[in-house]
Amino acid sequence: MSRLTRVLRWVEENKALDRAAGALAEAIPSGLRSSRVLRGEPMGHPAHPAAVLLPLGMYAASNVLDLLPGEGKAARVLIGVGLATAPVAIVTGLAEYATLDERQRRTAFVHLASNAAANLLYLTSFRLRGHGFGLVGRVVSAVGMGALTAGGLLGGHLAYSQGAGVERERV
Amino acid sequence: MLLGRVPGAVVVLAPGGVAAGVDTRGAPVGTRELDLLDPSALVQRVHAVTLSESPSAPNGVMRWLAERGHGFPVDGGVVPIVCGAAVGDLREDVGHAACEAAVEVAVPPAVVLVGQTAAAFVVVDADLDKAGCRRVAMSAQDGLVRAGLRVPSTVFALATGVATGTPLDELCTTAAKDVFSALR
Fold first, then answer.
1. Which end of chain B, N or C, is more open, meaning fewer C-beta atoms within 10 Å of its C-beta?
2. Do A26 and B72 lie within an 8 Å CB cutoff?
3. Does B131 touch chain A (CB under 8 A)?
4. Percent of chain B beyond pLDDT 70?
5. Got the DSSP string for A59-112?
6. Is B91 a residue whose pLDDT tops 80?
7. E-strand stretches of B53-151
8. CB of B31 closer than 8 Å to CB of B48
9. Nearest Cα residue to B62 out of B53, B54, B71, B75
10. Which chain B residue has the Cα nearest residue A15?
């Protein structure tokens, strides 16, 4: 086991997360919880991993543009599109969340917290850029990418190691 | 928590929901909704626990709670989460009547019903989650064994949600003692 997988295992086995993670599962509106479309039934597999590519791709592309001179405006537009498509990722994720078991829920809770932080950071960056704080905005964006990476890592663990949503929908 | 007693049924009502756990030994029949008490399940709280002579008692309890709008929200209404164990095979559903008779009292620490099987619940003053409650229920089973009971049994544990700081081990010991004394 690498040091990284040890951290993932620690999250997965952290009983201290149960209370908050369980309360969140119960608090998810029944409309999201019971939506077959949001869970990806028409596709035959969870919709969330595909839906996240929209905001994730936009955010990552804006980080690339940040490295190029004179692309500030384009970078901001990309973050804006990312923010606009983030709700799709959020609702499909919450629909999945209600189907998870205890261990998966722990990972998912940290995954959610980390991605929520990332989205808030990109939102902050978007507003900073709008007010002319381009450089600070870029730094905030970079931190956001860090949070997004952590969230993505946990998401990967959830799907590939913990098998969340695997063979759930009838094909 | 409200406690309702009528001949043939005891019901604990917690309209706002309460954390609960269960442990079964032997193979008791007439149990209801025990699987949702597993920590993996979505719902974290139950709205009532029923011990009765009749396996259908939880129906009446569910009806009573649903009439008042208490339950887990789903599309188009609520589903009251009611767990139960029956110790006999009476046909009559006395669940609703037990709810009507329910009053806000200090719930006794343990209530045991013995018939063809045994059913009990313990109430602990602590802020536990489902896993903690299950741990208490497992210990409470020992109280039944100590009292010499030799029938399949279902024991529920409910936590009031009041954080008292009592260690889990101590709660378990007390629960076993309470069940033992309730049978005496």
1. C
2. yes
3. yes
4. 100
5. HHHHHHHHTSTT-HHHHHHHHHHHHHHHHHHHHHHHHHHTT--HHHHHHHHHHH
6. yes
7. 72-74, 77-79, 82-86, 103-104, 110-114, 118-124
8. no
9. B71
10. B131
CA–CA min distance B39, chain A (Å): 6
Whole-number Å distance between alpha carbons of B32 and A116: 39
Residue of B40, B75, B130 with shortest CB distance to A101:
B40
Cα→Cα distances A8→A20, A107, A156, Å? 18, 8, 10
Chain A positions in Cβ-Cβ contact with residue B72 (cut-off 8 Å): 26
Residue B184 has pLDDT above 80, yes or no: no
Kind of pairing between the strands at B153-159 and B118-124? parallel
**Residue of A13, A14, A30, A96 to mutate when probing chain B, most B C-beta within 10 A:** A30
Can you read off the two tokens belonging to residue A75? 């970078």
Q: How far apart are CA B124 and CA B82, in angstroms?
A: 19
- ipTM more than 0.90? no
pLDDT > 70 in chain A, percent: 100
Contact B62, B50 (CB under 8 A): no
Are B130 and A22 within 8 A, CB to CB?
yes
pLDDT in tens, A75-106: 999 999 999 999 999 999 999 999 999 999 99
Give A126 to chain B, closest Cα distance, Å.
36
Supply the pLDDT for residue B24. 95
Q: Is the pTM of this model over 0.95?
A: no
Antiparallel, parallel or unpaired: β B46-52 and B82-86? parallel
Backbone angles phi, psi at B90, to 5 degrees: -60, 145
Say yes or no for a CB contact (<8 Å) between B45 and A26: yes
Helix, strand or coil, per DSSP, at residue A41: coil
**Three-state SS at B33:** coil
DSSP class of residue B55 equals T
Report chain A's C-alpha Rg in angstroms. Answer: 17
Place of tokens 């101590």: B170
